[in-house]
Amino acid sequence: MKSRHKRIAIIVAGIALLAIAATLLLQSFQSNLVFFFSPTEVFEGKSPQQGNFRIGGLVETGSIKRNGTDVSFTVTDTVKKMDVVYTGILPDLFKEGKGVVAQGKQGADGIFIADQVLAKHDENYMPPEAADALQKAQQYKQNAATAGEVK
Amino acid sequence: MMPTIGYYALVLALVVALLQGVLPLVGLPKNNGKLFAFATPMARIQSLLVILSFIILDYAFYANDFTVYYVATTSNSNLPLIFRLAAIWGGHEGSMLFWVAILAVWTLAVTFFAKELPLRFRSSLLAVMGLISVGFIMFILFTSNPFERIFPAPFDGRDLNPLLQDPGMVFHPPLLYMGYVGFSVAFAFAIAALLDGRLDVTWARWTRPWTTAAWVFLTLGIALGSRWAYYELGWGGWWFWDAVENASFMPWLIGTALIHSLAVTEKRNAFKAWTVLLSICAFSLSLLGTFLVRSGVLTSVHAFATDPSRGLFILLFLVIVIGGALTLFALRAPSVGLGEKFDLVSRESLLLSNNVVLFAATGAVLLGTLYPLLIDAMNMGKISVGPPYFDTVFVAIMVPGIFLMGVGPIANWKKASVPDMAGKLKWALGVSVISALLVPSMMGRLSPMIFVGLLMAFWVMSSVLTSMKIRLDAMPSATLKQKLNTFGRAYNGMLLAHFGLAIFIVGVTMVKGYEREHDITMQSGETKVINGYDFKFEGILPIKGPNYVAKQGQFYVSKEGKQVALLTPEKRLYPVQGAIMTEASISINPVRDIYISLGEELEEGGWSIRVYFKPFVQWIWLGCVFMGLGGILTITDKRYRIKNSA
To answer: What mean pLDDT do residues B549-570 have?
Structure first.
């Protein structure tokens, strides 16, 4: 093979390799994206039926029930509620009435099976997702109110 | 009074930094030696002013001067002294001042240790550093003044976040910043070279020790941060692919690429434009990292919206520095030239592949870090990128890179022969395959990932030994000491750093492959068998710390009747912020950690407890220490102590 041909072959092989690598990378990227939904959005059926997603809001007061390391609680965005179960130890800042984000799947019975529960670093800080969920719910309420007036 | 002096010292520093940045550059076209002469004294005065300002702010922490708003928000009179002094980098304003202070330290170092550089070159180098300083000081003065006062002063401060009240807080940020900011020297070298239009072997030789020094700091800083997260966050992880961690990891990856490409530029006068580009990228990523972490963009993208002036300034500064540098690069790179040619198989080409691998890895991390921010900024919803993405992609990219790492050091410059290298490395390959099968059979479980991980680790170790043996055999008559001396410290340092990476990979693989996690509940007085160890829960003791109260669990861990450790995990309450903290307790030994942390006190009595077994986890940080030592060894090579070569 002439050296020019050789060089072209190497360049083509290199580009093919890069293309394969980029495809695999983006595929892995896409399959690992975890989307966030507020309880209202979940109720409206916007969340995926299969696969992981995140929910967030406030831990409803009086909803935490423990049985050994099994915990169940309710997450609310003040409009809709979602029951969550989790096995394991919760973060220090997980408290009733405080913001929380949970990652996991929704079971057939509608209960959210969390494999990760996040509550962030300091006392007054609200996870941005949880704050977002509450804000959306507020808008939802307002929209509902105006819609009611029209009727 | 003092804080006012600190503020004006900073204002004065801005003026001097402007002179330091502008005068030498004005003199550049006409080669005006008088203007060049300004650079060094101005740089020194500027640095001292900034350091003075930093010391005054830290004195306010020492003296509990709560009239300074920043002190009042990040410190407390009950805070132990060492944490009060470190609290200066516990918030946004102080860390920005700290950043400039570290830049001042590097600038001073350049004025003292780079005397052998030609006046013209050293002046433009200091000018670039001066301009960076101008940007940061302006940012501090206009948007984040740490000397702002509050009257009447609050009775006491709001305290440092309890999570940060740890020895890690004293050492981790300074090391990390020394690394981040240290790349500014490489950056300034690159810009000065572009301005000069001259880039040769001497340039690479000057730049190398500075870049390696920054890299060593960054390596140790990241390792320390990882270890801190491991014991402090209470849940035993050592790397979370958290955006803040990624922000420090990206400059490290590019910095690593830079060190390697500088080696080629120095030895072979090749990869010249590429090296310059990497220098620019490394510092740009450092800047990006600093701002991502410290501007609040990451905790919530909306922090940009709450303080638009700060966000805008940041964006503008990034655009000017990165955009300006890249434009200059585009204009001047052709004059720098690509450098010497080399064969398809050669040490150059292997180092080039190393660079491609590290660059690709950086790209993958960048994508995973910035994409959620972009999506959120465009109001398209909130997403997060799961750690599995980083794990898979990173392993896939690094495996070929690490394979080449074994080959590189034995390849010849310019042209290497594949059969020759294969012959030299066949033993190394055989030994690593066998060991990678043997270790899992001893541990009782083999998976493809464990095999690949161990194979890579043993491959690097055995090829490092092979490269040493080849060199030793070349000088049969010399004594070992003579031999090691003739290798040169740079070469030995490289091998040591590579060996460190192998140790690191062993740690990662063993932890990933064999760690055990147990969430259990225990009553006081109860004994449970976990993973072959007896855990006896003696009960809870109340503890009073300097600024917290704690419940301390007493766990006697024993194996086959012999006591292994007394572990005392704590649940702490810091009353000032009302924060509860989990303090883990760890029994460390070279082949395994036993890690225990308290969960919650249960209503029916007893506690929920998490126990981890982490085999070889300490090797992760030990490996990083070796990498750092390797870097230090490299810097001390005689070759870099150059006499006046101008």
So the answer is: 93
User: Which of A3, A15, A29 should one mutate to test binding to chain B, selecting the residue with the greatest count of B CBs within 10 A?
Assistant: A29
Running DSSP on this structure, what letter comes out for residue B200?
A: -
Domain total in chain B: 4
Buried b (16+ CB within 10 A) or exposed e, B16-46: bbbbbbbbbbebbeeebeebbebbbebbbbb
A87 interfacial to chain B (CB closer than 8 Å): yes
B160 and B172 fall within a common domain: no
Domain with B553 in it: 516-616
pTM of the model: 0.91
Query: Tens digits of per-residue pLDDT, A64-122?
Result: 888 878 899 999 888 888 999 998 888 877 888 888 888 899 888 889 999 888 875 44
Expressed as residue numbers, the domain containing A114 is 36-145
How far A44 CA sits from the closest chain B CA (Å)?
16
Distance separating alpha carbons of residues B162 and B580, to the nearest angstrom: 8
For residues B357 and A17, what is the distance between their CA atoms, to the nearest angstrom? 13
Which residue among B382, B579, B582 sits closest to A123, beta carbon to beta carbon? Answer: B579
Say if A96 is an interface residue toward chain B (CB within 8 Å). no
Q: Cβ B519–A69 below 8 Å, yes or no?
A: yes
The predicted complex's ipTM stands at: 0.79
Q: How far apart are CA B483 and CA B358, in angstroms?
A: 32
pLDDT tens column, B282-292: 999 999 888 77
Domain co-membership, B143 together with B234: no
